[in-house]
Design brief:
Layout: H1 14-17, H2 23-26, H3 29-32, E1 41-45, H4 51-58, E2 65-70, H5 73-85, E3 92-96, E4 111-115, H6 124-133, E5 140-146, H7 152-164, E6 168-171, E7 178-184
Parallel strand pairs: 1-2, 1-4, 2-3, 4-5
Antiparallel strand pairs: 5-7, 6-7
């Protein structure tokens, strides 16, 4: 399936993204705690309603911060409600992407997470270039894609595009129903 034929995960289904049972298989502590420092600055791309942003924020101390980016304002509103209700609003900043193709955020991030979202972008190489520009030399980028949406060949193409830009695959974390690669900058 061509990514142009895919639809973005619509904000009307945001509650499904926050289901507590999801934490049993997709909790970031399972695959990110080895790399996450308590004072890291994290960029959560395609954050949706904030499933990962909220959990990562709890893993950070007062110096750490999450920037949660999404192209749908309704998703960011849902996340803002959740972060306030959970007392995490000081650790999470929401960022409305100018479009699905453009991240539109400035700065450098210790960790960038793209969980189940890159396949929704038409210009994946251009998006990966934006990600690379946001990584400091010590940073890491975690790409995670759904096995039930992408074929192994489609995921391999994403990895090859990242490698073409100089991102180096470090490890392939085991994440339920997912392809995953953790990259470091060259």
């Amino acid at each position: 399936m061509n990514n142009k034929d895919r639809q973005i995960y619509h904000h009307s289904r945001a509650d499904g993204l926050l289901h507590p049972l999801r934490a049993l298989v997709h909790h970031p502590r399972l695959w990110l705690s080895k790399y996450l420092r308590s004072d890291d600055h994290v960029l959560d791309l395609g954050c949706g309603a904030g499933f990962f942003s909220l959990r990562i924020a709890r893993m950070l101390d007062s110096k750490g911060h999450v920037t949660a980016a999404d192209a749908q304002p309704e998703m960011l509103e849902k996340l803002a409600e959740q972060s306030c209700a959970q007392g995490l609003h000081e650790k999470i900043t929401t960022h409305l992407q100018p479009s699905l193709e453009r991240i539109g955020v400035a700065g450098l991030f210790d960790i960038i997470l793209a969980f189940y979202m890159l396949h929704e972008v038409n210009d994946r190489l251009g998006y990966l270039e934006q990600i690379q520009a946001l990584l400091p030399p010590h940073g890491i980028f975690l790409l995670v894609e759904p096995r039930f949406v992408l074929s192994p060949e489609e995921y391999d193409l994403e990895v090859k595009q990242a490698k073409r830009l100089g991102l180096i695959p470090v490890v392939h974390p085991k994440i339920f129903l997912s392809f995953a690669t953790l990259f470091s900058p060259a």
